TrEMBL record:
Residues 1-395 form the Major facilitator superfamily (MFS) profile domain. It is a multi-pass membrane protein. This is Putative Major facilitator family transporter. The keyword Membrane applies. It comes from the Bacteria. It comes from Candidatus Protofrankia californiensis. The keyword Membrane applies. GO terms for cellular component: plasma membrane. GO terms for molecular function: transmembrane transporter activity. Keywords: Membrane, Transmembrane, Transmembrane helix.
Amino acid sequence: MGGNVVALGAVSLVTDVSAEMVTAILPLYLVVGLHFGPVAYGAVDGVYTGATALLRLIGGYVADRIHRRKAVAGVGYGISAFAKLGLLAAGGSATAIGMVIAADRTGKGLRTAPRDALITLSTPPGALGRAFGVHRAMDSMGAFAGPLVALAVLAAAGQTFDAVFATSFCIAAMGVVILVLFVNDHHSDNPPAVCDNPSPAAVSSRAALGLLRQSGVRRLLSAACLLGLATIGDGFIYLLLQRSENLAIGWFPLFAVGTSGVYLLSAAPLGALADRIGRVPMLLGGYAALIAIYLLLFGPLSGWLLIGVTLVLHGIFYAATDGILMALAGPVLPEQLRTTGIALIQSGQALAYLASSVLFGVAWHVWGPSGASRMAAAAALIAMLATAILLADRSSPHDSAEAAT
């Protein structure tokens, strides 16, 4: 595995410790501490992932235009780090919290596409699933540790949320330092993959818009949007678990630990398996696990069995999907516009996720959590079937290798 992939994985590991410290307590902080209702929480949760789609596109295009993917990613990591300090000043204001979260997600929007582009440019096309699996496994180490660190800080600081935010900032700053010192802003000597338009693409706004004329890009973008609409936020799943089992609020951050632990163990093996059996079947299998979660939340299981099965399936869902779509995207995007193309696909999924979170919050308010969960399962099934049709020509075990030859 290339040194750049490992270095980027280390950056993500440290950054995710910081991010998941906040993520693990944020639903509890908003719903229990500040008494947000499901509609208000759904709006904030949507902002948390989907509100920076335009900045993803701008960041991706600028990174390609100036050929400085590492620099753009560094700005994103820095913004997210300082946003943790903003939570200290936001208090109980929903508007201020929304603005701070938007700033944090702005940083994520700027950094994600350049980071993933660097991974694709540092890896042979036939090994992209394994590369993203290793990166996501390291990322999930941070996601696993973050909630535990948050619990330790809360215990040491007398259940003070501000202490978590301050510690999170310090850890995020370490991630920026690792990026500056150890990540190289260049790709390997592997020839770029051949895409739908084999001619080299100049980095211009016209060329960027021209990506949408490529059938492979359009289909991947459509699939990303459909799958984003079928995905509700982790916070909703954890809130439903906590309420259905009437658990003490102290257990809440450990749900994320369980998911991340399964993700950590399965991300690299499933990524390598996707390179052998096909990335589309792996992607669809992940969403089948998500449908099972939606149905199990109000199904026959209960108690710790329900919690355990749900968290295992949740971790498998992420291991089978997070990174696989980007591995599919790499071979169809020209090298000169790799970051822009990845940002385009990620932005479509993020906007769809924003809509999904808001709609799920409304559905919960109108039809209750059980009805909303069943509606989400039906939407996910439709999205799976549509994705299978859209990506049918990329479902063979050697899809990426064929695209590169």
